TrEMBL record, chain A:
UniProt cross-references to PANTHER family, sorted A to Z: PYRUVATE DEHYDROGENASE E1 COMPONENT, TRANSKETOLASE-LIKE PYRIMIDINE-BINDING DOMAIN-CONTAINING PROTEIN
Domain Transketolase-like pyrimidine-binding, chain residue ranges per copy: 12-177
Protein name in the entry: Transketolase
One Pfam family from the record: Transket_pyr
InterPro entries xref list: PDH/Transketolase, THDP-binding, Transketo_C/PFOR_II, Transketolase-like_Pyr-bd, Transketolase_C
Domain of life: Bacteria
UniProtKB/TrEMBL annotation, chain B:
Keyword terms: Metal-binding, Thiamine pyrophosphate, Transferase
Protein name listed in UniProt: Transketolase
Alphabetical list of PROSITE patterns matching this protein: TRANSKETOLASE_1 (PS00801)
Organism of this sequence: Oceanobacillus neutriphilus
Residue ranges the record marks as coiled coil: none
Cofactor: thiamine diphosphate
Matches recorded under InterPro entries: THDP-binding, Transketolase_CS, Transketolase_N
Similarity section: Belongs to the transketolase family.
Residue ranges of every copy of the Transketolase N-terminal domain listed in the record: 14-271
Length: 315, 278
């Protein structure tokens, strides 16, 4: 049985987890590299650079070249992590990653901060709401977003230890540290936070903490909730979703467009495997704007209240 | 293969041209024009210059070859077949299901392909990554990349170029196949490159323009750059003729990506063979 931290939670951005873990990995393995495209300070790779400077490359503001160089480096046995913001890491270099990383199935990781609505006051240009969907559609790619600092550190390490292309997405802003630091995570395996039989809630990334709060409210009202942290949306954990179809009601929650992200990935499995209704909570196929992060979540209905209401509406 | 003579290399280049044209004829699809313009320096690289081993294509210390203008795969495939990386019969399978000779180079399917290419502008970045890895690991291998003049219109070429200079990659040698044509017409009409030598020089490369069909000049230039450890990447801009060696293909835009019919094929092979005895 999983033991979570108790509120009030410590608050930490998951980009910090990447920065801490990649520096550790770099010390342990000289083949681990970081390829920055000028925003290393913001993406938290400075510690890596200072720890293992020979394993650090900065190509400047040239993301397409960053992806291509990483591909070339990986052909010699290096394990490069290309680090930038999610909007650039998924779209500016999407074709380079397709052609030179995924098509030849090379050991390159795309590790991006500023996922979802978390670069809130930067506005819609910098809020990556389609990144996980872009990469979910490219063969050989794995797509991952950890829920908190500890989950993200474990998943970054697993990505380094797993051969092949991986997309990792982090938050710019602080999110609650819900997991114990000894909790283990496996790429492609959903983390079951709660087991229940009235409704299933499947969340990932920075919305897991919202889903957790919603589940606790539902439980206080006598609703039995199954709560999954689906940190990997590709390969998706089919077995875990099939278990949810036995309940027949699923609410998905994500800080991503409801098209092509977690909600879509869950719906793909449900469409094939189960007689189940899915309600998707996430960015409503609209661009963001400058606003506090909480306001942006509210505009899109990514709130504890909406998760509770949506779940109750299904039972 | 450093003991091969200039005359033998010239003959080898003609054989590669014949094989490349034969491949495209069998497939009834592919890119003969640029394959023929690149034939001479590709021959020089595979049959004299590069330290590669067909018995061990993934040998860690090998020289690397990146065909950034991946559509001219037939000329690289011809080199791989004649060099023994794949059986010669493979040349009859270009663009077929399960063939190592995919429409564009595929490192997962074909021995001797160091990285998949085909989307223009991207291979040079990969070559830069390989060269950087060589420097970091203190290895002596070199990386050879082939780009096109049309391809130099891609912005990423210049991103890669500035990185090669920043990281002092004197183990990177780029051949620019300046055949003057691209799929829609003359490069200077579609999007003028102006002076490519000066552009690369301004970025910090050592540059030289040569006759890309003179085996003597190609070899001389390769010798010149061979042991130069000056911290500067090199580019050899080659004046070439698209379709070189087949009269009706030479400088004709239409032969960028078209297969010859039987009559054209016979004529092409005959003309190329005559070149063999010229």
């Amino acid at each position: 049985m999983i033991v979570l931290n108790k509120a009030p939670y410590e608050q930490k951005a998951t980009r910090e987890a990447f920065g801490d873990e990649i520096a550790e990995l770099g010390k342990e393995n000289k083949d681990i590299m970081v390829v920055d495209a000028d925003i290393g300070g913001s993406c938290k790779t400075t510690k890596f650079m200072n720890t293992v400077p020979k394993q650090h490359v900065n190509v400047g503001i040239a993301e397409q070249n960053a992806a291509g160089m990483a591909a070339g480096l990986s052909t010699t046995g290096k394990i490069p992590f290309v680090s930038t913001y999610a909007v650039f890491g998924s779209l500016r270099m999407a074709e380079q990653v397709r052609q030179e990383v995924c098509y030849p199935n090379l050991n390159v990781k795309i590790a991006c901060s500023h996922g979802g609505l978390t670069p809130a006051n930067d506005g819609g240009s910098h809020q990556a709401i389609e990144d996980m969907g872009v990469y979910r559609t490219i063969p050989n790619m794995r797509v991952i977003m950890g829920a908190d600092y500890h989950a993200t550190r474990k998943l970054v390490r697993q990505a380094a230890e797993t051969y092949g292309p991986v997309y990792l997405r982090f938050t710019r802003d602080k999110v609650p540290v819900i997991y114990n630091e000894n909790e283990e995570f496996e790429i492609g395996k959903a983390k079951q936070i709660k087991n229940g039989n009235d409704v299933a809630i499947i969340a990932n990334g920075d919305t897991v903490c919202l889903a957790l709060e919603a589940a606790e409210i539902l439980e206080s009202k006598g609703v039995s909730v199954k709560l999954l942290d689906m940190h990997t949306i590709k390969p998706i954990d089919r077995e875990a979703i099939i278990e949810c179809t036995k309940i027949g009601k699923i609410v998905t929650v994500e800080d991503h467009n409801i098209l092509n992200g977690l909600g879509s990935a869950v719906s793909d499995v449900v469409a094939e495997e189960g007689n189940t209704k899915v309600r998707r909570i996430g960015v409503q196929d609209r661009f963001g704007e400058s606003a506090p992060y909480e306001k942006l979540l509210e505009i899109n209905g990514i709130t504890v209240e909406n998760i509770v209401d949506t779940a109750e509406g299904m039972i | 293969m450093s003991n091969i003579t200039v005359e033998e290399l010239k003959e080898q280049a003609i054989q590669l041209r014949q094989t490349a044209v034969t491949m495209v004829y069998h497939a009834q699809s592919g890119h003969p024009g640029g394959s023929l313009s690149a034939a001479d320096f590709v021959t020089a690289l595979y049959f004299r210059e590069m330290n590669v081993n067909p018995e061990d294509p993934e040998w860690a210390d090998r020289d690397r070859f990146v065909l950034s203008k991946g559509h001219v795969a037939p000329i690289q495939y011809a080199a791989l077949a004649h060099r023994g990386f794949v059986p010669m019969e493979t040349v009859k399978t270009l663009r077929e299901y399960k063939s190592p000779f995919q429409g564009h180079p595929d490192s997962k399917k074909c021995p001797g392909i160091d990285i998949s290419t085909g989307s223009l502008g991207q291979g040079l970045s990969c070559a830069v990554g390989m060269a950087l890895a060589g420097k970091l690991d203190e290895k002596d291998y070199r990386v050879f990349a082939v780009i096109g003049d049309g391809e130099a219109q891609e912005g990423q070429i210049w991103e890669a170029t500035q990185s090669a200079v920043k990281y002092k990659l004197d183990n990177l040698i780029v051949f620019l196949d300046d055949n003057g044509l691209q799929i829609d017409g003359p490069t200077n009409e579609i999007m003028p490159n102006l002076d490519l030598e000066k552009k690369f020089e301004a970025f910090g490369f050592t540059t030289k323009r040569i006759d890309g069909h003179s085996m003597e000049e190609i070899l001389e230039t390769l010798d010149e750059v061979k042991n130069v450890k000056d911290g500067k990447p090199k580019i050899i801009v080659c004046n070439t003729i698209k379709g070189k060696g087949v009269s009706f293909m030479e400088n004709v835009v239409g032969w960028h990506g078209k297969a010859p019919n039987e009559e054209e094929y016979d004529k092409a092979m005959e003309e190329l063979a005559r070149g063999l005895n010229a």
